[in-house]
Amino acid sequence: MQTLKQIAIIEDDADIRQLLELSLSTLGGYTVLTYPLASIAIKQLPSNTLPQMIILDVMMPELSGPEFIPLLRALPKGNSVCIVMLTAKAATEELAPLLTAGANFVACKPFDPMLLPELLQHFWSEFHA
Amino acid sequence: MPLSQPIVLHTNLCVLVVDDIAFIRQQVCMVVESLGFKTLQASGGAEALRLFAAEQPDIVLLDLLMPEVDGFTVTREIKAKGGERWTPVVVVSGLEGDAHLLEALKAQADDYLHKPIVPAILQHKLNNLAQVLNLQRQHEALLTRSRAITENSFDAILVINSEQKIQSINFRCEYLFQTPREQLIGKGLLELLPKLQLNCAKGSSQHSQILLAKRPDGSKITIEVGITSFDQDNERFLLATLRDVSERERVDQLKQQFIATLSHELRTPLTSIIGALKMLQGTQSTQFNSSSSQLIEMADRNAGRLLKMVNELLDINRSVSGHLQLNLQWQSLNDLLAEARLAHEGYANRHQVQLQLTVAPELSTATIFTDHYRLMQILGNLVSNACKFSPPDAIVAVRASTDDTQLIIEIEDQGSGIPIAFQPRMFQAFSQADAGDARIRGGSGLGLAITKQLIEAMEGQISYRTSEHGTCFKLTFPQGALQCRP
């Protein structure tokens, strides 16, 4: 298992994006890429070196999280990216469709930024288990 | 006409007096008027019929033997033209014998008098007829009134005969089924309401059913239906009242969608607020003096409260719309209870209350089939309530036991009990005890409602006992949800 170093954040709410970035870079010490929309991310992600993990919002204009996943998976090595969906929905029945859509893990908003790096590290280990 | 009004004899009743001899006619009129009736006079059959059509008298006093159009003809014509309206005809004759009177009765005359007329007999006959006419008027008034009520009702009303065929309907029913009356009458009730349960039609039952009605054109509509029965002429009839509830259901759905959307939208800014505060507390806390730390703690605590309310709103909405789903798994009872205790230790400390957890020895290795998140929510609501309403230095006890058929979890506090007035509605959504107690302010009033619905979704039950020395909530879960390993 490689060490988790690079994480991309795709989130349209600027404040939440900034919070995620702070948490992951300052606390987690990761290299962080941020994108305000999935439609922008799919064009700008470095296709030769995809990030190891993507934090993906669900509801975004133009291209939603679930719509973004198959496009990413279709890229070379797209399957090796660990996708963590971040959703404001919390009910069990609302999370299952996100996993079916191809996310590897689902985390709920609001999240505790102090605990987020630890949670993502846990997901990363599970992803490689 | 008010129905309680007593019968007043011959008020405004009009008698048509028909005789070709003017002297007799005027004498009879004098007698009739002296009895309180109004009179009309006709000197022959043709004039009598003209006046009858034009003035609609209530009673006809009719000489039988007249030139040209005689009394027999007039009787037959009046009875033929009368329609629904009954106008008594009293024939008068000076002839000997009964043959012509019999003939007049055959022509549907209602009564007869011999000439010369005895005023006392005339008086009694007219009074009797006036009584019947008044009853008839009251009957008509009742019918008019009941028709007006039925036809103007906002609900569809159907009368069903003992063969379950529609016998009569009101206007709203035509509107509801978008079908003219004549096409609905005679139809089987179950053709329109295929899923109707008829066995619940008792005396004056108020139970209603909500089901899909089928219009003759095949379209369907959600209705609420109430069925009662009544007996008439040895036949049992059903009275069905139907209300279109499709609009109500649509509005309910809209409301639920609105709450769901609102709750989700509120979570987004809350995510930023709570996240920012947590980071401030976690990373910068050393830079704050104690009052700044207190303020940040206050903001964080209240953002947390707001989030809890938003979540509760979503939950109650889900359980009302039947969308509450459980994620059931076997889990260690001990671990679950320990986790709940740990989660509320801080809260208990703030209220200076001691949390005490006791698990019966036979349950020490037990596992339960439950939804982890929802059970934590149930215990959280009850434990935090118990802490909130306990005096300082009190003990909040959480006990788990089994009586061989079910798992029992009790949460007992030493508070002052639940006000009697609040008890009937304490499990209802948006209800809170109305006391000037600052500790209960700020909640959504949904906690206990959600708790009860969650427990019932897990096939469990919640009960309580309360006194001025404390309250104990008792949760029981069915045996199937509990496994005790040796």
List the helices and strands and how they pair.
The complex is a heterodimer of chains A (about 130) and B (about 475).
Chain A: E1 6-10, H1 14-27, E2 31-35, H2 38-44, E3 53-57, H3 65-73, E4 82-87, H4 92-100, E5 105-108, H5 116-127
Parallel strand pairs in A: 1-2, 1-3, 3-4, 4-5
Chain B: E1 14-18, H1 22-34, E2 38-42, H2 45-55, E3 59-63, H3 71-81, E4 89-93, H4 99-106, E5 111-114, H5 119-152, E6 156-160, E7 166-169, H6 171-177, H7 181-184, H8 189-192, E8 208-214, E9 220-232, E10 235-244, H9 246-283, H10 290-320, E11 328-332, H11 333-350, E12 354-359, E13 367-371, H12 372-388, E14 395-402, E15 406-412, H13 447-457, E16 461-467, E17 470-478, E18 482-483
Parallel strand pairs in B: 1-2, 1-3, 3-4, 4-5, 12-14
Antiparallel strand pairs in B: 6-7, 6-10, 8-9, 9-10, 11-13, 13-18, 14-15, 15-17, 16-17
Helix pairs in contact in B: 2-3, 9-10, 10-13, 11-12, 12-13
Description of the molecule:
The complex is a heterodimer of chains A (129) and B (486). Chain A has 129 residues and is of the alpha/beta class. Chain A has a single domain, classed as Response regulator (Rossmann fold). Chain A has helices spanning 14-27, 38-44, 65-73, 92-100, 116-127, and strands at residues 6-10, 31-35, 53-57, 82-87, 105-108. Chain A has a five-stranded parallel β-sheet with strand order 2-1-3-4-5, sandwiched between helices. The longest helix of chain A has 14 residues, at 14-27. Chain A is globular. The model of chain B is unreliable at 1-9 and 435-439 (pLDDT under 50). Chain B is 43% helix and 23% strand. With 486 residues, chain B is an alpha/beta fold. Chain B folds into four domains: 14-149, Response regulator (Rossmann fold), CATH 3.40.50.2300; 153-244, PAS domain (Beta-Lactamase); 248-320, Signal transduction histidine kinase, dimerisation/phosphotransfer (DHp) domain (Helix Hairpins), CATH 1.10.287; 328-483, Histidine kinase-like ATPase, C-terminal domain (Heat Shock Protein 90), CATH 3.30.565.10. Chain B has helices at 22-34, 45-55, 71-81, 99-106, 119-152, 171-177, 181-184, 189-192, 246-283, 290-320, 333-350, 372-388, 447-457, and strands at 14-18, 38-42, 59-63, 89-93, 111-114, 156-160, 166-169, 208-214, 220-232, 235-244, 328-332, 354-359, 367-371, 395-402, 406-412, 461-467, 470-478, 482-483. Chain A binds chain B through residues 13, 15-16, 19, 22-23, 26-27, 88-93, 109-114, and chain B through 264, 267-272, 274-276, 278-279, 281-283, 307, 311, 314, 318, 323, 325-327, 371, 373.
